[in-house]
């Protein structure tokens, strides 16, 4: 009998030890749904709870395009509050593509007892996008599309109807961006500075930002590393942005303290394997 108790106690200690990795919330991208292959792979590799909620239920693909970011974030936040493993916070986020923008919502606006623990984003448009996917400036269609979008994007109806309008950045019109961007300018503390939002980023144990070297969806792809376009469409690295220089949202502090890193992987948007994902998230999510 004593032996049995001992064995059970030992078993409990061992399994408890294995569960020290915080739960992981996977947030899917635009025109996409939860990839439960990724969720299962991360969960078994890290031996922890992992979950993904399709935003908009059966209509996730449509919702990811046509619901604005605040609304998508609110839906996901409600799901988190209903999830026993996630509801108190202290979970890590794996944000994929537009999921990285919704991650900002969860970090900053979703009320949690403990702040989000760590984050890894893949191809996240942290400083927005300035061209439609696969239509860069070099193509006439890209230039034409950008011209049209730049004309209409900051009208409110677009911002209500199309999610990417919430993180569109017209590099030639920084004032228009600051005035009308319904989500990104606020979430990045570019419009109104809010110390509380910054503190929530500074509460992260670690942040890792992954860029696809041949990304043709996030334009400019340097946005995945908090870079952007200058008004004449040259790349501005994160070091030369106001967001970084003034440390508006804490990214500079995180990097200087060794709590943020920036890595790249070959290939176009969404080209990654389960092994790649696991190898990249493991050192971040297990600390
Ligand atoms: C739990 O962790 C221990 C030591 O880290 C390891 O030897 C063991 O295989 C793990 N158990 C499971 C069920 O993964
Ligand atoms: C957060 O999760 C980690 C890893 O599971 C754990 O060690 C830590 O105690 C937790 N912190 C809080 C405040 O619950």
From TrEMBL:
GO molecular function: thiolester hydrolase activity
Pfam families: Palm_thioest
Region forming the signal peptide: 1-16
Entry's Gene Ontology cellular component terms: lysosome
The entry's keywords: Hydrolase, Signal
Protein name: Palmitoyl-protein thioesterase 1
Organism for this UniProt entry: Euplotes crassus
